[in-house]
Amino acid sequence: MPMTQLEDTLPQWDFTERHSRWIDAQPGQVWEALTTLRLEDLTLTRPLVAVRHLGSSGTKMSSSLFQDGPVTMLRTDPPCYAVGGAIAKPWQPRPDRRVPASLSDFASFTEPGWVKYLTDFRLIATGHGTRLVTVTRGVCTDAAARRRFKWYWAAIRPASGLVRKDILWTTARWARAGA
Asked: Over the range 149-175, which residues count as b (16 or more CB within 10 Å of their CB) and which as e?
């Protein structure tokens, strides 16, 4: 199986999570549902996401996840793949962020004290449906950032996984409704 852009850009990482869901809809329907999803559309985790982004100037709950989400979409290959990235200090109450302009810009960033992370979405046709897979990987730019992020990740990892599962669930619901 060929490497994804996420795997190619971040072959080594400090943290990762993966979630997937089979959806009873064709890839085009799943892609449409995924790319129009807004953070405010999340069912279970909307309050968690809203609290996390209080006071944040970058993420808008009412905008498409692919337009104004917590990661900047750096490559989309409709209807089968998208990868977005962020460079941040998420342990801060109002996280400092750098917006990468491209995957190469993301890969070349090495300033100490930051976490670089990518999230991708892969849609795989499976006969009568689509498997939607999302992977998040991140790497800290130095040991100090790794120490800070270690505590942050321990605290938010369960909620992070829940948000991703909610994204998959909401996408599935919308894709089936549009079928």
From this structure: beebbeeeeeebeebbbbbbbbbbebb
Residue type, 45: T
Mean pLDDT value of segment 166-170: 94
138-157 pLDDT tens trace:
999 999 999 999 999 999 89
- Decide the pairing of beta strands 81-88 and 15-23: unpaired
Beta bridge partners of 140: 115
Q: Are 4 and 81 in contact (CB under 8 A)?
A: yes
* DSSP-derived secondary structure letter, 138: E
Q: Going from the N-terminus, what domains does the chain have, and what CATH number goes with each?
A: 13-178 (3.30.530)
